[in-house]
Amino acid sequence: MLTQEQLLRAVGHVAETALPRWGLEGAALKMINHSENTTYLVTPRGGAQAVKPRPVILRVHREGYHSINGIRSELAWMRALQAEAGVLTPQAIPGRDGIDIQTVGHTSLPNPRNCVLFELIDGREPQQENLTEPFKQLGEVTARTHIHSMGWKRPPYFERLSWDFEHSLGAKANWGSWEEGPDMSPELRPLLQRLVDTMERRLKAYGQGSDRYGLIHADFRLANLLIHQGNTRVIDFDDCGIGWFLYDAGTAVSFFEHKPEVPELMEAWKEGYRRVRPLSKADEDEIWTFILLRRMTLFAWMGSHHETDLAQQEGPAYCVGTCELAERYLSRYG
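User: That's the sequence. What structure does it adopt?
Assistant: Structure tokens below.
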């Protein structure tokens, strides 16, 4: 077992080894994120060119999360969204051999890693001072992806994670058991179990009709939205999979679901969404179910990814906030 520091150093060796696959020997690497995967800003050498080469983004996938076909499916949907729905996304850059996904090994790791190089697209994350308008934009682009998802013919190799109840909070949870979340205790388990049981019951009643359930982004936060000259771009499709469309609504307020401004922001999200696609009363009635479903899924993620900076930063207070939200939700739906 490698320590976190040793792992990051080893993954860095893989990233350096991968660069020649795209003709980027000697490019500067700067790690910009480590979560499920490790992502680097790659700045090519300028050489004698008058115009400096544009930086690109290298993603080194974690081991065992997505298969080759799973990654291919993600890249195919990103290309289709841009080509067919006008949703701008970072496009994968094929290697010298014409293949998007390069499998690269290094002696510092026992198994090779899958690597993908992406365009660096222009844009800035929406400013945090006033989130009402950004949430309208977020709702609108979310609806556009859902409409495309409903009509998109998936490639024959299509394979992505499922975000149904069983794979979110059930026995086959993608991110581990919520019972292993940070600061969990036997005293808190009954409350959160009631929450999980209530959500399971309501989601079963809500159903998985084709107008409610399909291919989703599954991490539609403002952090994954870029605004450039009035245009909205979407990044980080690594978690995209099969789930309820309204799960994307729940992801919009990830990590701050307990904040007092959330109800107002969700009204803005709904307004933006309705510019493109209707929401029924049944949809509106379950938005908080999906906010809590996402919250509990993140709670499980923090337990299984306790070594990450995000889990260490958010984890200590996350259990208390989750219990407060659970009590509020159960007072209304339980």
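Residues 23 and 96 are 7 Å apart (CA to CA).
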